[in-house]
Amino acid sequence: MPEPSLALQPIGLLHSPYREKFAVPRQPGLVSHARARLELLPPFNDPQTLRGIEQFSHLWLIFQFHHCAGQGWHPTVRPPRLGGNERMGVFATRSPFRPNGLGLSVVRLEGWQQQGARVWLELSGVDLVDGTPIIDIKPYVPFADSLPEAVSQFAPEPPTAIPVRFSAQAEQQIAEASLRYPGLRDFIHDVLAQDPRPAFHQRQASAEREYGVHLYEFNVRWHMESDGAVVSALETI
Question: Where is the TsaA-like domain (predicted)?
Fold first, then answer.
């Protein structure tokens, strides 16, 4: 018998403030200030496809790890939650390097809008990079999707947030940009509080190493000190 195949067509594209993979939260909901817009593509941009969706507070997004497309997969991976030191089976993790490159994320629905032929959903709490192809949307149903008795042994709790402070220069730059990006300071704070550094960098903290995170139109420059992350400046890209 021939091997089964499945052709998938994206139903929309996600526009988020995360312009690169680095610093995207490792799970949805960790950065509640992360707002995004999911624009539906033809022929799915018919408002009838969204009839009744406002009755749900949250949605499941099935998406493609498009930045990893073509990079292949391996039977085992090194989860960041285990410090990158221990291998786990790919199906026992949420690694983006998967046989079919598909992911699942739950987001908060803030509403939806139509402007001419354009139809889009306003979302928050996203953990997806800008331009992510969305394969499908399904409503989140609490009585079926929330299982308090579920066990997750190596990731039982959310990661511990680290302190984040801002230099005077960064504070001024954020204030100037806040008219275009309301809540920008809180957003940057919550992104960096997740400590997006690779696991081996976390084990070898150095104040001399500077990082850059591409959020919206900015390269957010920051480094680690003994008391947490310090945002030094925002550079317009």
Answer: 8-149
pLDDT, tens digit, 9 for 90 and up, residues 195-229? 988 766 665 656 678 999 999 999 999 999 988 99
- What letter represents residue 2's amino acid? P
pLDDT in tens, 157-194: 777 899 999 999 999 999 999 999 999 999 999 999 99
What is the C-alpha to C-alpha distance for residues 133 and 47, in angstroms, rounded to an integer?
19
pTM of the prediction?
A: 0.89
Tell me the C-alpha distance between 33 and 233, whole Å: 20
How far apart are alpha carbons 41 and 132 in whole angstroms? 13
Q: Which residues contact 169 (CB under 8 A, 6 or more apart)?
A: 232, 233
Tens of pLDDT, residue by residue over 102-158, are 999 999 999 999 999 999 999 999 999 999 999 999 999 999 999 889 888 777 777
**Rounded to an integer, what distance in angstroms lies between the CA atom of residue 62 and that of residue 10?**
10
Strands, sheet with 228-236, edge to edge from the N-terminal-most edge strand: 164-166, 228-236, 218-225, 210-215
Question: How far apart (Å, rounded) are the C-alpha atoms in residues 140 and 84?
Answer: 31
